[in-house]
Amino acid sequence: MRALVAALLALCLAVPAPTLAGALEPQGDTGAHDPTLLIQRDRWFVFTTGPGLQRLVSSDAGATWQRLAPVFSEAPAWWAEAVPAHRGLDVWAPKLFEHRGRVWVLYSISTFGKNRSAIGLASADRPDGAWRDEGLVVQSRAEDRFNAIDPDLFVERDGRLWLSYGSFWDGLRLTELSADTLRPIGPTRFIAQRKAGIEAPTIFRRGEWVYLLASYDLCCRGADSTYNVRVGRARSIDGPFLDRDGQDLLAGGGTPLLAGGARWKGPGHQDVARDASGDWLVHHAYDSTRGGKPHLRLKRLAWSDDGWPTVAQED
User: Fold this and answer.
1) Catalytic site includes residue 134
2) Is the overall model pTM greater than 0.90, yes or no?
């Protein structure tokens, strides 16, 4: 999600390690920050922060990865007006999804530590094909109480689409999107707030519960990153999202789901994708044995008897 990550991505190499219980240890070109995952049978696609918006593909269900050419070879004209301080092809924090026979990606442009930001949209016939920019979706300015980065898309059972986004400032926001235009309709409201760091929402449904994951604390500091993933849930997208102790995420709540270990630091900026056998949590973490570079991490979500997600912890 940060400009400094782009320089690290080209240097990242796969690092073999023991497979964690409930986890898949990716091999190949696994350098990634802020990953989003789309599963199309055995072909898995990860889009990630980096120059032009980075693309990874696996043809063996996530086991090994290779890098494709980026989505953008030149900046769309509207970027300069929406975020005048933005430079080059630095693109952050994508969300990849399918809708009405096409593949779409929401993405962010910004500058580090500022909330003059924008979320854009692009589409393609297939993830490894040619992409076209679809323009601006939502933006924020210095006077706003929010930061328009880190988009996520949630499709409810009734077909309605919901965009969540946000980083620091007054927290995470939610708005409905038109299924025809993929642009906001109706009001926008906060769904999670925290005085310390909170960003990168992920919303998904399992059964009668809607779950909200978010990354807390600080990314982008290599092995000194303190990112961790927490969760709340609600009976509907209308909320309120409560943690396991009943505390509202609007009041700083959030049940810990994933934290760093001795080697893998600052896990976060998660996404959830589903295959025939269940749900996968994709995220990045910083490898303290290789200079604190960010790498792709994949874990199977398991579930407690009372309906809370669990994952294998980082080593």
Assistant:
1) no
2) yes
